[in-house]
Amino acid sequence: MSSVTSDTTGTERSFSDALDRMVEQGTPRLQRRWSAMSATGFVAGAEVSLGVLALLAVESATGSPLLGGLAFSFGFIALLLGHSELFTEGFLVPVAVVVSGKASWVQMLRFWVITLLANLLGGWILTWFAMEGYPELHRQAVTSATFFIDSGIGLHGFAMDVLGGAAITLMTRMHNGTDSMPAKLVASIGAAFLLAGLRLGHSILDTLLIFAALHGHAPFGYLDWLGWFGWAVLGNIVGGIGLVTLFRLIRSIDAVKEKRAED
What is the pLDDT of residue 12? Predict the structure, then answer.
């Protein structure tokens, strides 16, 4: 019995430590000036674009989305080590900060909007340079992007978007569950493999593929992207917040209450 109690206590402590880490690191992120948020969001879009370039190069050479997914992991590793902000990584930590009473919902929405727009701008610019520098990858970019555009607005695409939102949020959860950098790197590589290798729906990653295709004279346009994008963002939010963040916070409800009581 004492062993069970000790294990339970240790588990509760680990949940509390993880919440402390999220709140400590996340609160300043929501309180920064818009210029700082824009800069880190722009850099994140650029970093993920370099991962997209690696994905396209490997997929073009091998024909394997799985190997392309491993190559794409460079983008997530750059995000981790560079401390930049990706919109879809902003589900778990910002929500935890708000629920813990350390920031407002308005601050979180401001963070989401600025980060999202900056990600798109940085990604659009870097994918333009990538397609200008590597015109031989135009065909692969169109092929990869068409997979997502063709998924359209329907149950199949939505299911893939939900899975993508859950996968990226699980990566964030693993990052905040350990202080070990090797473990965080493994989580980043694993999430990249799931998202890019299995072609799960990810509103930013897949948008950058679509931008690359548009720069490479794709047979679809920005309105096609916009319709797909809204559906993808909704699915990512359902997967990231509804399937991962919500249950994570329910599991940590006692620690959340303690955080709120501190004020």
Answer: 52
Per-residue pLDDT reduced to its tens digit, 206-239: 999 999 999 999 999 999 999 999 999 999 999 9
Per-residue HEC secondary structure of 62-88 comes to: HCCHHHHHHHHHHHHHHHHHHCCCCHH
Yes or no: domain 14-261 corresponds to CATH 1.20.1080.10: yes
Q: Whole-angstrom Cα distance, residue 11 to residue 19?
A: 12
CB atoms within 10 A of CB 66: 14
CA 88 – CA 198 distance, rounded (Å):
18
> How many Å apart are CA 224 and CA 220, to the nearest integer?
6
Inter-helix orientation angle 181-192/65-82, to 10°: 140
Q: Which amino acid belongs to residue 148?
A: F
Tens of pLDDT, residue by residue over 30-46, are 888 999 999 999 999 99
Residue 236 C-beta-side C-alpha neighbours within 13 Å: 27
Q: Which residues contact 248 (CB under 8 A, 6 or more apart)?
A: 92, 96, 173
Q: How many angstroms separate the CA atoms of 52 and 175, rounded?
A: 22
HSE of 174 in the Cβ direction (CA atoms, 13 Å)? 18
Report the C-alpha gap between 245 and 243 in whole angstroms.
Answer: 6
Q: Where are the alpha helices (DSSP H) in 150-202?
A: 155-176, 181-192
Q: How far is CA 8 from CA 13, 24, 183, 198, 237, in A?
A: 9, 24, 23, 36, 31
Cα 29 to Cα 74: distance, rounded to the nearest angstrom? 23
Instruction: Report the distance separating Cα 201 and Cα 205, nearest Å.
Output: 8
